[in-house]
Amino acid sequence: MTNPLFLPELREMLAEQDHQQLGEFCTALHPARTAEFMDGLTADETWQVLQATDLATRVRIFGFLDREVQKAIVETSNRVEIGRLVAEMPPDDRVDLLNQTEPDVVAELLPLIPADERRDIQRLGAHPEETAGALMTTEYAKIGERKTVREALTELQRQAEELETIYYLYVVDDQGHLRGVVSARQLVSSLGRPDTAVGTLMESDVVSVRASDDQESVAQQVADYDLLAIPVVDKEHHLLGIITHDDVIDVVREEAAEDAYRLGAIEPLEEEYLQTHWFKLTCNRAPWLIFLMLAALLTAAALEHNTLQMQKITWLVFFIPLVISSGGNAGSQSATLIITALARGNVQLRDWWAVVRREIMMGLSLGVALALISCVATILFPEVDAEAALIVPCTVILVVVFGTLIGSMLPLIFRRLGLDPALMSTPFVAGIADIAGVVIYMRVAQVVLGAGFVSNG
After folding, report:
1. Is pLDDT above 60 for 352?
2. Domains annotated on the chain, with CATH
3. N or C: more exposed end of the chain, with fewer CB within 10 A?
4. Relative orientation angle of helices 7-15 and 43-50, to the nearest 10 degrees
5. Entry pTM
């Protein structure tokens, strides 16, 4: 959120090189609020403000800046100063930033970063994007299982300033295997027994993830077990790092945004809307629009195939929007329900038959309700006789049942093929339902009106 009333004051401080006031500005508020107040400054102006404070405060505020501003600062500012900043950033955050920075800039920065941090960057950067390994941080509290409560608290106090979270203390053996976890609460509760071994207090049944696990499944486990952090291990169960709840929140937001884009038949954006070139946005939207237009052409072809029949019984045309929208809307609802259930882990592929049964029951119930309304609507047309009045209600029931089935099954089929169920966007389902709706409508009319309908065509 931009704060235009405050920006002139900041720019005045910058013009006057008032480092004292700028320094007080950087420390007066929470870093997130400070970053919010700087929204609207250029990257160069933002960097000038940050240079007025100490490195630790600078790093904290920098972490709350918009990613595009961060990239601009890294790519345009003094390399030595940026190297110091990057070296002090949380490991997972700096890897994410460097992955989005121009490669030639990264090549200039890496030699300026201390060897330990540089190796850590390279180690974390080796993990594929959207995996637990790419998401984890290597700053976590750990201790040997033979250490006492007193030693654990001393170690925790020593490491506290450098760690992202100290709520969990991970217990490892001499080879670095994850053996258990002890919470800070457990340690404080055991102060009366300072010589107790940590190994006797720890929870040995630790929920962990592999470095290669998909970030979406990681977020699901953190939510299922209500964790503040989750450890990341390799195949031999060596502790590699942890993923904290703030990173999980970012994953949830990212996955939700991707699903929202795909449900709207748009390829997910890599950058924010205003930072994405209009031509790139156009290219993201065009493939699905072309597909949907081709689906509409098929609908038109189905209508053309039955033109002669509809010329004879013109009132059929009036109800085409009602029929196809009923099926498309019902299918879109079902697709949304199943995609959401799949994302939350509430539905598995093995549940397909239960899904079919439920969707048929819901389709019939919804179809009958809509059919009653459409029956009243058809009776109001003087051209429609009592026998013909059955066409629209019967069609509505059939297309709604078909829509619910296709909307629920296609996401499951996509999941079975290893594809993202969200690709089965609601417009996609609606396109299929439109074509089927016209075909079903004409076939029902043929059955109800009999040979006269066909011969009249």
Report:
1. yes
2. 7-126 (1.25.60.10), 141-244 (3.10.580.10), 273-456 (1.10.357.20)
3. N
4. 70
5. 0.65
